[in-house]
Amino acid sequence: MKAATKPDNIFLHPGEWHFASGPGRIGTLLGSCVSVTVWHPVHQLGGMCHILLPARKRAPGQPLDGRYADESVELFVNELRSRRILPASCQVKLFGGGNMFPGPRAMDIGERNIAAARRALAGHGFNLMAEHVGGTSRRRLYLDLANGDVWLTAHRHQKMLGI
């Protein structure tokens, strides 16, 4: 995790996550990786993660690792619990999971990442309110920590998702 400060602009690399209050933006660039954004409108705080893989076999006592969908979502849950915030009260969005190497012999890690993130979110009581997943293009996105808006650029188009 990046330092829990009030960011101006934070850029996440694969396996990183950040949770903070605004003003500022958290951004990342996605291919087959997926990103989850979490925003709480009352508390005016949120976060983003950059998930690289669906899951791993984690040994007992081994720390959570943001590279994996199940563990990254659990990191968000722990952060929310420390602030006494219920996952169901958050606005949650899912992005990415593109098939960057399509073809008959391609291993579609993007689809596996999407499925793992959806399972982890549902398993912890998050309600997914928007998503932009799959396809074959890369995505750049930003979470605005002042209002929870997510800005997405894909296929050379820019649009705002969410409230």
TrEMBL record:
A single GO BP: chemotaxis
Highest taxon above the source species: Bacteria
The keyword Hydrolase is annotated on this UniProt entry: yes
Catalytic activity: L-glutaminyl-[protein] + H2O = L-glutamyl-[protein] + NH4(+)
Annotated GO MF terms: protein-glutamine glutaminase activity
Pfam families, A to Z: CheD
Family named by the database record: Belongs to the CheD family.
UniProt xrefs under PANTHER family: CHEMORECEPTOR GLUTAMINE DEAMIDASE CHED 1-RELATED (PTHR35147:SF3), CHEMORECEPTOR GLUTAMINE DEAMIDASE CHED-RELATED (PTHR35147)
This protein's name: Probable chemoreceptor glutamine deamidase CheD
Organism: Azonexus fungiphilus
